[in-house]
């Protein structure tokens, strides 16, 4: 160790581990703990070495503000408590704030339509993930709501498009349809019908009239081709 290192350690010990007679009646150690670590202890006891807030601009601002001093919008400050204590207090307030909207929204939601997408055996211990990459899109101009998804068991080369009117009392034609990519991208006379089959990796709406898809060549080999394609809803 260099002399600089030794001096640094000595200064640290001098600053944080001096005897503190005023703490003799307090629970715990009889010296000042390291001032960062005390904030991270997961306990409700007061800090052994609370911070000095004298001269803090924010506290002075609140103290001098008639309107903000008792404002319910400001989260109360606990200068004697650790961050874990403050975190638990804040989580409780947030949970309380979210509970009422959750109850109201939950009671307002109801099932508009039910469609059977696939069936699985009830005897299976673990249910496989058959529903993949659902993406939602709302066409505000036409008041239509779309859902893009794939069903893995059905066909990896298909993407399904579900369309519903935002007004649940109305219905639209072609509520659900599937687009199969297959080998339609083959543009060479040398490509056989089975050699260039594509599956969908991802799909998003680009705008109200266009869907962007990422396709992957389905052959089992290195360097599989990826294709970025855009499909018109029409």
From TrEMBL:
Cellular component, GO, one term = nuclear periphery
Annotated keywords: Cell cycle, Cell division, Mitosis, Ubl conjugation pathway
Q: Where is the Anaphase-promoting complex subunit 4 C-terminal half WD40 domain?
A: 136-234
Does Cell cycle count among this protein's keywords?
yes
Q: Membrane-spanning regions, if any?
A: none
> Record's superkingdom?
Eukaryota
Which GO biological process entries does UniProt record here?
anaphase-promoting complex-dependent catabolic process; cell division; protein K11-linked ubiquitination
Q: Which InterPro entries match?
A: APC4, APC4_C
**What's the name of the protein?**
APC4 protein
- Species, as recorded: Anthoscopus minutus (Southern penduline-tit)
């Amino acid at each position: 160790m260099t002399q600089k290192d030794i001096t640094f350690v000595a200064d640290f010990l001098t600053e944080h581990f001096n005897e503190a007679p005023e703490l003799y009646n307090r629970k715990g150690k009889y010296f000042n703990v390291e001032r960062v670590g005390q904030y991270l202890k997961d306990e409700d006891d007061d800090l052994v070495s609370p911070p000095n807030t004298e001269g803090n601009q924010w506290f002075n601002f609140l103290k001098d503000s008639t309107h903000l001093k008792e404002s319910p919008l400001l989260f109360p400050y606990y200068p004697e408590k650790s961050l874990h204590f403050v975190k638990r207090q804040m989580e409780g307030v947030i949970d309380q704030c979210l509970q009422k909207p959750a109850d109201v929204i939950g009671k307002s939601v109801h099932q508009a339509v039910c469609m059977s997408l696939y069936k699985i055996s009830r005897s299976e211990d673990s249910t496989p993930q058959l529903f993949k990459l659902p993406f939602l899109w709302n066409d505000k101009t036409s008041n239509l709501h779309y859902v893009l998804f794939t069903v893995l068991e059905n066909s990896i080369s298909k993407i399904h498009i579900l369309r519903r009117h935002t007004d649940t009392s109305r219905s639209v034609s072609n509520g659900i349809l599937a687009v199969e990519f297959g080998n339609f991208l083959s543009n060479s006379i040398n490509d056989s019908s089975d050699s260039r089959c594509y599956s969908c990796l991802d799909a998003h709406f680009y705008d109200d009239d266009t869907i962007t898809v990422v396709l992957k060549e389905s052959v089992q080999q290195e360097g599989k081709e990826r294709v970025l394609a855009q499909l018109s809803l029409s």
